[in-house]
Please model this.
Amino acid sequence: MLKKMGFVIILLLSAVLGISAIVRYFILDPVEGNAILIREGMTMFRMNNQLWSIALYIHIITAAIPLVLGPFLFIKKLRNLHLQVHRNLGRVYVLMILTSSIVGIYLSFYAHGGILAILGFIGLDLTWLYTTYKAYKYIRKKHLVLHEEWMYRSYAVTFAALTFRMWSAIIGYSIDNFTVGYVVAIWLSWIGNLIAIELWIRMNLRKGKKRLSKGLTEEVTH
Model:
């Protein structure tokens, strides 16, 4: 029950963030929508740099899709009943992350907050690429257990899109220094997510598989 509730919450949060980002940048005026960020010194959101603006739009679309799509890849019933659908969704997930992370590295060099912010975003994008590549590599080798674990890690980094905004708001305004909070939030968003998912993998996913393996062994020996 708790697992289902967690899934629904993550799906709803992902959908809200993904849809709101698309509405904010593609339907409404992004300059007005980012007025607070511009006041904090993020002048790039005035959208005067055409190349940066195009990269940002690409990044938003290609990050929103895996954010919303990701939870459906963990539905075992969907995977078992519609394996080809699962595979196609997985291909879209990987392709979007490949595109978004590469574009994100370019955007990182314009990050607000100096070198620590730049390195934080580059670290996020490289980790996003790496975890997704590992998940892809293991499914190509048909190592289903390792594929599942690395998919959870990949989505944990994908979910940093949401936790980054959460932490930047909480820390930035609670210490009355938006820039410091912003930089801390960059690092905390993806490293914190990876720590949390690693603990979950070890405490739940692996223990569940060990119990299943033990049960199957006992059935065979009896």
